[in-house]
Amino acid sequence: MKQILLACSSGMSTSLLVKKMEEEAEKRGVDVKIWAVAQDKAAKELENADALLIGPQMRFMKKKYAKTAEELGTSLDVIDSVAYGRVDGKAVLNHALKLIDG
């Protein structure tokens, strides 16, 4: 099972995106766990994730998580602002899976 963590300022704005990503994963038969947390909780959750995607409004936090993510072998990136704004679960899921699978 692939584990995808989303982080945003409060964890609330990504909750709908998580739902859309889960729906897309289910349609495709992809075995994933997707969850969202507030950015101040992301560091504690990082060790449980294969990928951490940060909300575009929090892109400045990428540098903060980069070293820990690298040490843990966790992929890290910022969610595309267009996909985020459109709550495009398919695009964000594809992005996360590409990060994990290389």
Automatic annotation (TrEMBL):
UniProt keyword annotation of Transmembrane present: no
InterPro entries with a match to the protein in the record: PTS_EIIB-like_sf, PTS_EIIB_2/3, PTS_EIIB_3, PTS_sugar-specific_EIIB
Sites bearing Phosphocysteine, chain numbering: 8
UniProt superkingdom: Bacteria
Any one Gene Ontology BP term: phosphoenolpyruvate-dependent sugar phosphotransferase system
Domain PTS EIIB type-3, chain residue ranges per copy: 1-102
Gene Ontology molecular function terms on file: kinase activity; protein-N(PI)-phosphohistidine-sugar phosphotransferase activity
Protein name as catalogued: PTS system, cellobiose-specific IIB component
Organism for this UniProt entry: Lentibacillus halodurans
Source lineage: Bacteria, Bacillati, Bacillota, Bacilli, Bacillales
